[in-house]
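Hi support team,

I submitted a single chain yesterday and got back a structure, but I'm not sure I'm reading the token output correctly. Could someone confirm the output below corresponds to the sequence I sent? I've pasted both exactly as they appear in my results page.

Thanks,
R.
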Amino acid sequence: MKRNSLRALPPALHDEAGHVRIVLRMEPVRRTHQNTATSDLVAEAKASDPEAVSELWWRFSERALTRLRLRLGPLPDDATLELLGRVLDELDGYDPGQSLTAWLDTVVDRYAEDRAPPPSPAVALQAWGY
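Hi R., thanks for writing in. Yes, this is the structure output for that exact sequence:
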């Protein structure tokens, strides 16, 4: 998966991180967390437990990728790994008092907006009523 290097580095190093990429390998899904409550799984994923990350993605990836396909159509090869990286980058902002699926939908929608191609000039003119 691809993570946002700026989120992983202290702010003092952001200016130096222009060409840094963080690439993490997914652990295989094991039975370790098969009975772990989702709220506990999120907490363990936030604490960088690689098996918790894999389990969390296994539980919610189909929903996230289906939503992304509905927004973007056929997905580019790198979209799955980038989306997982985005989810992990934003996981600290998840409030356990809210629905995880609603939060995930919001993250997917923001990612889709970032990935969507810019509108053509004709579409922009139509939006302005020309």
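A quick pointer for reading it: The chain has one domain: 2-127. Let us know if anything else looks off.

Best,
Support desk
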